[in-house]
Amino acid sequence: xxxxxxxxxxxxxxxxxxxxxxxxxxxxxxxxxxxxxxxxxxxxxxxxxxxxxxxxxxxxxxxxxxxxxxxxxxxxxxxxxxxxxxxxxxxxxxxxxxxxxxxxxxxxxxxxxxxxxxxxxxxxxxxxxxxxxxxxxxxxxxxxxxxxxxxxxxxxxxxxxxxxxxxxxxxxxxxxxxxxxxxxxxxxxxxxxxxxxxxxxxxxxxxxxxxxxxxxxxxxxxxxxxxxxxxxxxxxxxxxxxxxxxxxxxxxxxxxxxxxxxxxxxxxxxxxxxxxxxxxxxxxxxxxxxxxxxxxxxxxxxxxxxxxxxxxxxxxxxxxxxxxxxxxxxxxxxxxxxxxxxxxxxxxxxxxxxxxxxxxxxxxxxxxxxxxxxxxxxxxxxxxxxxx
Length: 388
Hints:
The chain is α/β, with parallel strands linked by helices. A 7-stranded mixed β-sheet has the order 2-5-4-6-7-8-17, sandwiched between helices. Strands 9, 10, 11, 12, 13, 14 and 18 form a 7-stranded mixed β-sheet that branches. The longest helix has 17 residues.
């Protein structure tokens, strides 16, 4: 099933009135040692600087989201009995996930949700699986687990165990095998993101030469999907472009800088770097600036605007693509609520998610997938309109 957001960045008229329900506190007590840190909140209060920053709805999205398809009357996702939602991203500290949690906590009280944010301190599928297992075995397990997977396989057994214990499982950002979850919120369509990135490079630097890609790890699900989308689009549209060896920065800025430096030095015809990991964006920019190539080699990344404001200001960051991470976090809550209550429609049906608007459910591109929006482009002219 696919759910498409009607608008991105422009608040819509509320389509449903939701009563405020007191949220239930979680006191997780997992057995064994887990390499994790967590926060537990019923309100919009967050535990990190990124999550406590004020959220100002952007005045305008540079790329409008795909309109929702018609599918009859829409079912409203409404508040119900209080429950705990555990959000388990790839690792702690990345601004994209902090923004997701910020959005989830903003709407949590109105949906009767307590948000428990917990993750590993490093990008490890094994560590993430251990955290999920700890949640399942805790004295007060959550009713819903929302994950962003480090890889497509490591977390599957733990997630299936969660489902076997009656816990609803939804994914966002990076998926696993569909048999291990109920729904997956895909950030944006992979071909759309691949096309947006390559077209941006060509528009500024031309269509002949080499493009360097910086990813996180070799088995990162979503980043591999973006790489394939870029490769497929280049093959069909720009035969004189090629993708050079891919650098893997392990979601670490210093490692990403080293990988970017290697890509620049080994590819004399390099047009641009495309860092597709949050930590890789500043790493790529540091490499370009250290080698005196700022402005000569483009940097078009995938990431949040806030951590990259200084690079927009000094002109070293040529372009940045993402989606509204805060609003995606809000959608996580609505999908969790609807999944738990059994109110999400079958394929072809529609539902409303508060101010986010109306969403239509389909079976494309994969079972139970939710496509959040079209790619949103941040530029030197519009990045100040966003706060995440």
